[in-house]
C-alpha cells in the first residue's frame, strides 16, 4: 500500500516538473519573441544608412554608426527641454488623472449614491459617440483659450471611460461594510476614500496609472493641434516626429532636384527616435509590473 502511494506521489511530482519545464520553455520562447523586435530596432539604430540599404535590418550592426543619434541630439537644449516638458506633463497628468479616476470609480460603485446610474450612462455614452475633431478644437482654443498652453495637452487625458470602468470594477470587490463601519465611527466620505479605499486599491492604481502615464508619454497629436511651432519646448514625441519629418523632407526635396544625399540616415533615425522615446518607459515598467498584472486580473474577474 505504501509502495503504491509512493509510486503515485513520484509520478505526480514528475508530471508537475514536466509541466513546469514546458511552461517555462513556452514563456521563455514567447518572451524572446517579444524581445527580438526591440533588439532589431536597437541594432538598426546603430547601423549606417548604406549598410541598411545593402543588407537590410539586422540585429547586429553590419557597419556601426552613431550618426543618427548625433542628428537626434544635435540640439541638446531642445531635446532636454522636450524631455522635461514630457516628464512634467506625464507626472502631473498621471497623479491628477489617477486621483480623478479613482474618485469617479469609487463614487459610481457606491450603492447609496443616488445618481450613479445616470452619470454612468453619460460616461459610457462617450465610448460610442464623440463630438468630433472640429468641436473639440473649438472648445479648447476658443472657449477654454488654451492655444499654446500645456494644459491643452494635459486636460484631455485626465479621464478615460475605459479606466473609470476598470476602477469601478476593482473597487466593487471591496466590501461596502467597510465604508458603513467607517461612517459609524464618524468618518466623512473624503476621509474614507483617502484613508481606507486608496490603500486597498494599490494594484488598480498602479495599473491605471501605467495606462495614463503611457498615454501622456506617447502623446503627440494634441500637441500638434494646440502647440504652435513658435513654442521653444514641445513634448518629446512631437519633437522627434518633427526631426523625422524634416529629414524626410530634405531627402525628398533633394531627390526631386536630382541631388543625391547620402548623409541623411532616415531609416536609422527612425529606429534611434524609437529608442529615445521608449527607453525611459522600459526602465520604469518593471517596478509596476506585478501591480499591473494583478490589477488587470482582478479588474477583469470582478465585474
TrEMBL record:
It is found in: Cell membrane. Residues 83-288 form the ABC transmembrane type-1 domain. It is a multi-pass membrane protein. Keywords: Cell membrane, Membrane, Transmembrane, Transmembrane helix, Transport. The keyword Repeat does not apply. PANTHER family: ABC TRANSPORTER PERMEASE PROTEIN MG189-RELATED-RELATED, POLYGALACTURONAN_RHAMNOGALACTURONAN TRANSPORT SYSTEM PERMEASE PROTEIN YTCP. This is Carbohydrate ABC transporter permease. It comes from Paenibacillus rhizolycopersici.
Amino acid at each position: 500500500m505504501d509502495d503504491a502511494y509512493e509510486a503515485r506521489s513520484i509520478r505526480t511530482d514528475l508530471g508537475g516538473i514536466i509541466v513546469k519545464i514546458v511552461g517555462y520553455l513556452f514563456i521563455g520562447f514567447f518572451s524572446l519573441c517579444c524581445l527580438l523586435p526591440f533588439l532589431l530596432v536597437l541594432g538598426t539604430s546603430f547601423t549606417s544608412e548604406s549598410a541598411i540599404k545593402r543588407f537590410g535590418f539586422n540585429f547586429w550592426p553590419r557597419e556601426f554608426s552613431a550618426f543618427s543619434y548625433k542628428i537626434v541630439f544635435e540640439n541638446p537644449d531642445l531635446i532636454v527641454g522636450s524631455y522635461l516638458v514630457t516628464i512634467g506633463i506625464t507626472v502631473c497628468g498621471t497623479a491628477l488623472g489617477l486621483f480623478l479616476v479613482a474618485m469617479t470609480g469609487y463614487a459610481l460603485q457606491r450603492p447609496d449614491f443616488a445618481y450613479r446610474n445616470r452619470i454612468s450612462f453619460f460616461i459610457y455614452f462617450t465610448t460610442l459617440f464623440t463630438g468630433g475633431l472640429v468641436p473639440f478644437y473649438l472648445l479648447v482654443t476658443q472657449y477654454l483659450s488654451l492655444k499654446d498652453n500645456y494644459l491643452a495637452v494635459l486636460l484631455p487625458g485626465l479621464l478615460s471611460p475605459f479606466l473609470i470602468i476598470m476602477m469601478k470594477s476593482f473597487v466593487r470587490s471591496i466590501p461596502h461594510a467597510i465604508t458603513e463601519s467607517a461612517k459609524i465611527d464618524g468618518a466623512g466620505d473624503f476621509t474614507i476614500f483617502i484613508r481606507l479605499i486608496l490603500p486597498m486599491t494599490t494594484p488598480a492604481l498602479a495599473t491605471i496609472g501605467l495606462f495614463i502615464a503611457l498615454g501622456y508619454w506617447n502623446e503627440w497629436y494634441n500637441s500638434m493641434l494646440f502647440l504652435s511651432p513658435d513654442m521653444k519646448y514641445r513634448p518629446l514625441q512631437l519633437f522627434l516626429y518633427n526631426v523625422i519629418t524634416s529629414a524626410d523632407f530634405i531627402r525628398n526635396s533633394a531627390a526631386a532636384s536630382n541631388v543625391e544625399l547620402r548623409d541623411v540616415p532616415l531609416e536609422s533615425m527612425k529606429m534611434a527616435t524609437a529608442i529615445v522615446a521608449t527607453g525611459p518607459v522600459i526602465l520604469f515598467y518593471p517596478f509596476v509590473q506585478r501591480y499591473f498584472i494583478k490589477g488587470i486580473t482582478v479588474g477583469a474577474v470582478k465585474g
